[in-house]
Amino acid sequence: MKILAMIFLGASLLFGAVDINSANQKELSSINGIGAKKADAIIEYRTANCFKNIDELVNIKGIGLKTVEKNRANLTASECK
Fold it and tell me: For the Helix-hairpin-helix DNA-binding motif class domain, which residue ranges apply (predicted)?
């Protein structure tokens, strides 16, 4: 079952970007350099502060500019509501 989930998440990255304002923990964890704890931190941050752009990921402890740059093509930040 885990293999199927990994294949699905990998395919979703190939065909569409991960929206950091709406993605769930599994989708966020599929981002290179982002594990479950950082995914949880992203979700916690966006609950209080909507991401206006992907560059704001550097506001999450443990996520730096290199991680953002490495994943820029696979990330998006939908409009804040």
Answer: 26-45, 55-74
Return the CATH number at 30.
1.10.150.280
Please state the domain count of the chain: 1
Of 75, 78, 77, 68, the closest CA to residue 33 belongs to 68
pLDDT digits (tens, 9 = 90+) for 23-61: 999 999 999 999 999 999 999 999 999 999 999 999 999
Residue 68 inside a domain? The answer is yes
Q: How many residues does the chain have?
A: 81
- Global confidence as pTM: 0.78
